[in-house]
Structures are given as structure tokens and as C-alpha cells.
């Protein structure tokens, strides 16, 4: 059972919490109807994403066998057979389809289909194309937020779109930089890395981090935000700025961003900043 949980990368389901962003920032997190609808969206996205992880590992079996860490994945290590993996893939696709049919709407179905086929193309070919590969990853995070919006009928603001896409792009670029550094050390690479080098990735990360900070500043200083929340929202900039600096430190100094999920789950300082920022928003939104 543990190997199957690893195969569907259940630890990566943390990414699907982005589905809850629309109800959280709209002040409807405690609305049971909205929460249930968002939870269905979370499940739909979790199952469809897990199906893609299976296909991705299936396609990369031979490459993963040569990687110092990925060789321990269930398919690459032989702990789960290819046939069993494909059976699980189809089961997840069926579950996703059933949940979408009964609990979602047409817009959500279209978004999930876009995610599914886009990432199938990514697994087989598009991940080999530099820049396009990280753009697809970032767009995937944006689709999660849109699913949350369409599941509940809540509007996803322009600021949310800009910030989510840019933050996801930062994570994707950091991941590629970590892979490139490890490839130089271990001689294991992926084709898309041929289109990157450290100078380019350093510059791209610096640009995207700057854009993220500037977008967040413009967001918290906008009159609409000040009116909707409270002028105290300006102080959340401290947590965001510190989190960006911490991520850059982990990237440029410690080379620990090949797996952003692991970084977030293990870095206590980054966790503290996220928790403090989250608490700040809870107080600003729900305890005015």
C-alpha cells in the first residue's frame, strides 16, 4: 500500500490546496457549502494529478533508474509493475470523471480536461522543451485556483492570477536550477536542461522574485485591498519578503530547491513564515 501511495505521490496533494484560495480570500472559508464544493474540487484535482504522476513515472522509468534518488520510485525500482501502474492510472481517471460528473460543472470539467491533456503532452514531449516546461507547471497551479473559483462561483481576482502564476514559476525555475546543479555533480540530466544554464536560471529567478514582490506590494497598497481588508495588511509584506529571501537563500546558497514540496515540508523557517502570514490573513479577513 505504501508503494502505491508513493506512486500517486500523495505528498504532492499539498499543491492542490490552491483550490481553497478563492473561498479563503473571499472570507467564505467557514461557509460549509463553499467548503464542501471546494473540497470536491480538491479531490478531483488530486486524483487527476496523481494519474499524471503515474504516467510521468511510467515514461521516465529508464531515466529514473539512473537517478540517485528517483531510482527508488515504485516503478523505477520494480516494486510496482508497469501493468499495475496502468490499471491504477485508469482507475484514477475513472474516479476523476465520476466526481467531475456528479459534483462539478461544465467549466470545471473543461479546466480538468485541459490540465489532464496538457500534462499528458508534458509527460511525453513538452517537458523536454526549455521555458515551456516551467510555464506549463506554473499554469497548472493557476488551473487549481480557477477550479476553486468555478466550483463555488467566486471570482478569481487579477491579483490572484498574477501572484499565483509568478510564485509557481519561481518554484518551477528553482526546481530546474536544483536539477541542473545536481546534473553537474552527478551526471544525470533531462533534455530540457540543455536549454538552461546557471546564468540564465539565476537571472530568471531574480526577475520572477522581483515581479512577485512588486506585485504583492501593488496588491496590498491598492485602495480596493485596503478597503476590503484593513490598512494593517501592509505589514504582511514582512513575511512575504522574508519568505522570498529564504527561498532564494535555499536556491543560491544551499541548492535545496530541486524538490519545492520537500523544501516547504522540511524548512521550519519557511513554514513559520507561511504560518505567520496565514494567521495574519485569518485575522484580517475573519476578525475585523
Note down, in words, how this protein is organized.
This protein has 288 residues and is mainly α. The chain folds into two domains: 156 residues, Tetracycline Repressor, domain 2 (Orthogonal Bundle); 132 residues. It contains 14 helices and no strands.
What can be said about this structure in brief?
By secondary structure, the chain is mostly helical. Helix content is 73%, strand content 0%.
Produce the secondary structure layout.
Blueprint: H1 2-7, H2 21-25, H3 32-59, H4 61-65, H5 74-77, H6 82-103, H7 106-124, H8 132-152, H9 158-186, H10 198-221, H11 223-228, H12 237-252, H13 260-266, H14 268-286
Helix pairs in contact: 3-6, 3-7, 3-8, 7-8, 8-9, 9-10, 10-12, 12-14
- Structural class assignment: mainly alpha
Number of helical segments? 14
The span between the termini is: 46 Å
Strand content: under 5%
Judging by the overall fold, what is the CATH architecture of the largest domain? Orthogonal Bundle
Secondary structure tally: strands: 0
Overview features:
73% helix; mainly alpha; 2 domains; 288 residues
